[in-house]
Amino acid sequence: MNRRTISKEKFIENVELHPMRQQEDTDIAIVGGGICGLATALALHRKGINALVFEKSETTRAVGSAITIFTNGWRALDQLGVASKLRSTAIPITGSEELRCLKRSVLIETLVQELPASISYFGCQVVTIKSDPLTAFPILHFRDGNSIKAKFVIGCDGANSVVSKFLGLKPAQYLSSCSILGFTNYPHGHGLESESIRMRRGSISVGRIPVDDKVVYWFVGRKWTPQDSDISKDPEMIRESALESTGNFPEEVVEMIRKCDIGSLILTRLKYHAPWDILFGRFTTGTVTVAGDAMHLWAPFLGQGASAAIEDAIVLARCLAQHLTRNKVQAPLQTYVKQRRMRLVKLSTQTYLTGMLLEPSSVIVHYLCLMLLMVFFHDMLGHTRYNCGPL
Ligand SMILES: Cc1cc2nc3c(=O)[nH]c(=O)nc-3n(C[C@H](O)[C@H](O)[C@H](O)COP(=O)(O)OP(=O)(O)OC[C@H]3O[C@@H](n4cnc5c(N)ncnc54)[C@H](O)[C@@H]3O)c2cc1C
Predict the structure, then answer these.
(1) For 194-210, what is each residue's pLDDT tens digit?
(2) What residue spans define the domains of the chain?
């Protein structure tokens, strides 16, 4: 059993016996213990605010092998006080102000280690949220029949968010493509330059980026097919499929996939929230809000999903800390949404237009997207220089 795992029964008992029970309406419940949920809990913890994290998996969950973090993400990690520890695990990649590729498990474990053991609860799946008829505060209902009242609920529960459903947000839509992600470990060193490489052959793309001197993170992008539902359940089949797709890529690419760490492989169909859904989405109702993929899901064309989720965490904790001292209950969430919205609209628009260029479309649509990208996003890496501000 994970050292941070306690049973739900024990947790309920703790809440009932603990003096905090009497002031439960000051509690903050975070649904989802992925990158965003843990970053939000840590940001709040740094501000001296208690929050409880409810994660449906039985242990920490780091699906996917690695993520690229650009300057904006490192700035946010600096605010969380974990950047220097994380920097030591990943080499700098040339061509960007600061770009490193982090193992997901390292990021998740680092966030968990910085948090007090008593605030994360695993094996707690939230199934619905309702408003308390007396106080209007949200009540979380769990799969095992228990329920908990909280003053604030922050939904960091990813692509199929229960909290965004409560808020009435539009679900993410599927793209026609998928990604296969994995690591290859070279025990004697890979000898590659510290650069991010992308190649394309027809509708298939391959990316490769070193994590450190021995480990290389790679991905294959291709069309989704109905057989992929089955393939995604079997790592051997995922590898076979990646090899099939990349047969006409350079031999070193094929070799890298052949020698991959089989346990690191995942195949995932890409989903997205359209820019207009983010522009008009009602991201807060009463004292409930969302962050991370639950708020803004994009295809990984800019590699910004996790960094944006960590930015959300910083801004949300800052807003809560500023307003709670003045005892204002709804203002912090409204301020948070206001501060995040245009940043997220810009990121989703750039991602959307980039994706449209990669999808088959008419010549007119293709050139329109190209023109819009050139006019509004001529500085293609401009988004990586964003600063979400201090915690
Ligand atoms: C192929 C691919 C490549 C990517 N590459 C990059 C990259 O290079 N750089 C980058 O920055 N981003 C990248 N991303 C995006 C990044 O992975 C996500 O944006 C990031 O993981 C979002 O974190 P999150 O915590 O919001 O969501 P998640 O990581 O999905 O975490 C949600 C958590 O909530 C839990 N949960 C869900 N429902 C419930 C419930 N009802 N009750 C309790 N718990 C629940 C889940 O178990 C999970 O642990 C990529 C995404 C994909 C698909």
Answers:
(1) 999 999 998 899 999 99
(2) 8-171+274-345, 175-271
Dist. CA 390–CA 328, nearest whole Å: 21
Residue pLDDT, tens place only, 19-53? 333 334 448 999 999 999 999 999 999 999 989 99
Give the whole-angstrom CA distance, residue 61 versus residue 307: 18
Q: Of 119, 362, 65, which Cα lies nearest the Cα of 235?
A: 65
Give the span between the Cα atoms of 21 and 35, in whole angstroms. Answer: 28
175-271 has the same fold as 8-171+274-345:
no
Query: CA–CA separation, 267 vs 234, rounded Å?
Result: 9
Does ligand 1 lie within 6 Å of residue 70's CB atom? no
Per DSSP bridges, beta strands 66-69 and 197-201 are: unpaired
Residue nearest to atom 20 of ligand 1 (CA): 306
pLDDT at 62: 67
Q: 175-271: which CATH topology?
A: D-Amino Acid Oxidase; Chain A, domain 2 (3.30.9)
Distance 93 CA to ligand 1 centre (A): 23
Calpha distance 292→35 (Å, rounded): 8
Closest CA to 70 of 303, 340, 295: 303
**DSSP-derived secondary structure for 215-231:** EEEEEEEEE--TTHHHH
Contact by Cβ (8 Å): 42, 80? yes
Contact 300, 220 (CB under 8 A): no
Pocket test for ligand 1, best of 56, 104, 129, 381 (most atoms within 8 A of CB): 56
Name residue 189's amino acid. G
Confidence of residue 327 (pLDDT cuts 50, 70, 90): low
Q: What pTM did the predictor assign?
A: 0.92
Q: What's the CATH code, domain 8-171+274-345?
A: 3.50.50.60
CA gap 103, 90 in Å, rounded:
8
56 lines ligand 1 (CB under 6 A): yes
148-158 confidence digits (pLDDT tens): 999 999 999 99
Q: What is the SS3 assignment for 354?
A: helix
From ligand 1's centre to the CA of 267, what distance in Å? 14
